[in-house]
Design a protein that fits this description.
Elements: E1 8-14, E2 18-25, E3 32-35, H1 39-52, E4 55-62, H2 69-87, E5 96-103, E6 106-113, E7 119-123, E8 130-131, E9 134-135, H3 137-150, E10 153-160, H4 164-183
Parallel strand pairs: 3-4, 7-10
Antiparallel strand pairs: 1-2, 2-4, 5-6, 6-10, 8-9
């Protein structure tokens, strides 16, 4: 049985390109608070938080006069670091999850292994290169850095869709739900869910 503790962490990251402060709680109620310069990412993180039943606060300033790349990338890094810290030794977690989420005509699937082995696979072809001013290639950048810093295995597949916004929205909803399931505590699990005895 996992010990009773608050699975929550705060991270601050300041570079010449960005200044980010965030707090991530695994066991939350879907509360989201964002103050960033990337409105589309705010929207996606709101969906991720609500569907994962996390609590997430993000304050981020970045060099968006160049583009959104550094801000999106560094928020992914910080969420990944906070998730890894919040999970601790991962005792009692389910570890694996696979979730399909439809969004109107679009269907996305996210598969997670909280493995301590960072790996990212991404299969998505979007009809447009941008949603508003947001570049769709930044979805890959965010997810890859999240997987790397949290040290999870993350597979993301967008099976089909016609509307780019819907397709990305399905990804973030599925990400929240899959991560919620994979990090949930299973009272049957003694220690960590690995024959190695450690994750």
């Amino acid at each position: 049985m996992a010990e009773n503790r608050v699975r929550k962490a705060s991270v601050a990251r300041k570079t010449n390109e960005t200044d980010i402060k965030l707090t991530f709680a695994v066991d939350g109620t879907g509360e989201a608070k964002f103050d960033t310069d990337v409105p589309f990412l705010n929207h996606m993180l709101d969906l991720f938080t609500k569907h994962g039943q996390f609590n997430l606060e993000v304050e981020a300033r970045g060099d968006i006069d160049i583009d959104d790349h550094h801000t999106v990338e560094d928020i992914g890094i910080c969420i990944g670091q906070a998730l890894r810290e919040a999970l601790g030794d991962k005792r009692g977690i389910k570890r694996y999850a696979s979730v399909f989420v439809p969004m109107d005509e679009a269907l996305a699937q996210v598969i997670i292994d909280v493995s301590n082995r960072p790996h990212f696979e991404y299969r998505a072809e979007y009809p447009s290169a941008q949603v508003g001013s947001f570049s769709t290639e930044l979805v890959h950048e965010f997810l890859w850095k999240l997987a790397l810093e949290s040290r999870i295995t993350l597979h993301v597949i967008v099976h089909y869709g016609m509307n780019t916004h819907h397709m990305i929205e399905a990804v973030f909803k599925a990400l929240g739900r899959a991560l919620d399931e994979a990090t949930s505590i299973d009272p049957r699990v003694q220690g960590v869910p690995s024959t190695k005895g450690v994750l």
